Amino acid sequence: MFFHIVLERNMQLHPRYFGRNLRDNLVSKLMKDVEGTCSGRHGFVVAVTGIENIGKGLIRDGTGFVTFPVKYQCVVFRPFKGEILEAVVTMVNKMGFFAEAGPVQIFVSNHLIPDDMEFQSGDMPNYTTSDGSVKIQKDSEVRLKIIGTRVDATEIFCIGTIKDDFLGVINDPATV
Amino acid sequence: MKQMSVVADSPVHSSSSDDFVAFLDNELGASSPDSSPDKEAESQDELESVRIKRRKIESIDETEGSTSEGIIKQNLEASVEVDVCTHPGSFGSMCIRCGQKLDGESGVTFGYIHKGLRLHEEEISRLRNTDMKSLLGHKKLYFVLDLDHTLLNSTLLAHLSSEESYLLNQTDSLADVSKGSLFKLEHMHMMTKLRPFVRSFLKEASKMFEMYIYTMGDRPYALEMAKLLDPQGEYFNAKVISRDDGTQKHQKGLDVVLGQESAVLILDDTEHAWMKHKDNLILMERYHFFASSCRQFGFNCKSLAELRNDEDETDGALAKILRVLKQVHCTFFNKHQDDLVDRDVRQVLSSVRSKVLGGCVIIFSRIFHGALPSLRKMAEQLGATCLTEVDPSVTHVVATDAGTEKSWWAVKENKFLVHPRWIEAANYFWEKQPEENFIIKKKQ
Ligand SMILES: [Mg+2]
Ligand SMILES: [Zn+2]
């Protein structure tokens, strides 16, 4: 799920960045520092969307660095237990399949794939219904439900299921 | 100012939705007790602390009503569902079946399939059973392949001998590796030569087997070699096992292979790596293309590269082994008396092997004591009968010296007199070798 939230961060800036571009320098450093990072608390910071407020800078003894408290708006992505996500299948094997929703790694084990779908090995391994109408293979887009999440300092792991109504393939690359 | 600045990367009042922030906070408190905000501190002199203290979640009900989204309700259902789950395995330390967070690190790691994946014994055997049925339905077995000296030979660039330096100008393009066989891997400071016939070998073998790579090399090396051998990822996708994935040091084991042992063949030049699975092993004659590789095994001869030579493309070691594989595969699937799942490829392998020297009656003459037992065992596995006393039924005298009493006897009685390498070659090539190539000369 995406959230638009306000976060705060103390930014340290070298004196060479002071001057009339100070604000721009602060913002670009902020974007460089936080976008694409993952925090256990908020998930992935997808994009900085705006600056709420830049507080008064504090000059530090000795170094001349100045610390600015910056409040910024950003879009974060964090999956939750129970959430329905759309993801792209990255690997299919006899244990189940792995999928990605942005930077999130999701595993759907064959325990959580409908019983009427069977694993087919070969150079394009897949799970297929007995009548052949539905097929999950690499690059398929699937809708799945998250049943477990683990957010580490740098990575997010999820356990997903497609064993429920309205879950499963939403776009089969083989048919387009 | 001596005070350290304190950063707080924490939700403050958002213009968009306070509900979300509260929800987020609840959810975080509930689901990731291990992710301390300290981990987020990434800059050396920045200390982060979170202003909003994590609320303690007594029960899941507290989250109810904190947002208008349907997610909470689903969340509630998912959490309340009490399932008696055996936790067959884990991904990111969560059960792959119920999603519950699991403590400890039990089970076997399958990092070669995906980072963070572990499976328990029962789950492994369940997967092996179901997979076995479908695989046999496709008339396939499992095949585990070693890399070094079996499918290819690698050397550090620094270890190329002066007579081999001409190779530096003969390497093939990395842009389309499927066409080449000699590659310089600059970033790994290495040169790799693929064994002649390897591409046809893999293509043919893939029709009969589900294939794994299993190397004592490390993971980056293994993946790099897999890319050279299988640029399209048709054969070894997520089936590249390196020493980083094994469960025992200096040993290879089938415990990390998701195939039943009765259906696995192994091709490796190092017998002692497979102590527990010798019956599955097809021992490969070592491929020494580079001088460094010869030296490593104590050979003082010139390398193939130094001789500007190579194994034969159509009749080299891999081509010969492919014929054996076809024979074993054919025998496994074509005998109709019992159920497929009850068959054992190890028995088929040993029966094919036992025909190689079938009908040969061997007597050894003055073979070094240390070498004798293994040589005798090898000959017997190849189907030969080994005697200790001369006898009219003897067909071959195996000796290293033509001047022994038994050697004289062989010449007099018109029996074959061969060097022990005759047995070893038959063992490598699964074929009785022409005796005239293994004649022993009289010692001066
Ligand atoms: Mg080897
Ligand atoms: Zn479980």
From TrEMBL, chain B:
Domain FCP1 homology: start-end pairs: 136-307
Swiss-Prot/TrEMBL keywords = Hydrolase, Metal-binding, Nucleus, Repressor, RNA-binding, Transcription, Transcription regulation
Q: Which residues form a coiled coil?
A: none
User: Region Disordered: what ranges?
Assistant: 23-48
Q: Name one GO cellular component term.
A: nucleus
Cofactor(s) this protein requires: Co(2+); Mg(2+); Mn(2+)
A GO BP term here is: response to salt stress
On the tree of life, the source organism's domain of life is Eukaryota
Q: Note the InterPro entries from the entry.
A: BRCT_dom, BRCT_dom_sf, Fcp1, FCP1_dom, FCP1_euk, HAD-like_sf, HAD_sf
> Pfam families annotated for this entry?
BRCT, NIF
Q: Name one GO molecular function term.
A: RNA polymerase II CTD heptapeptide repeat phosphatase activity
Q: Where is the BRCT domain?
A: 352-440
What's its catalytic activity?
Answer: O-phospho-L-threonyl-[protein] + H2O = L-threonyl-[protein] + phosphate; O-phospho-L-seryl-[protein] + H2O = L-seryl-[protein] + phosphate
Any transmembrane segments, and where? Answer: none
Name the EC number(s). 3.1.3.16
Where, per UniProt, does this protein localize?
Nucleus
- Its function? This promotes the activity of RNA polymerase II.
User: Record's NCBIfam families?
Assistant: FCP1_euk
User: How is the quaternary structure described?
Assistant: Interacts with RAP74.
Name of the featured protein:
RNA polymerase II C-terminal domain phosphatase-like
Say which species the protein is native to.
Sphenostylis stenocarpa
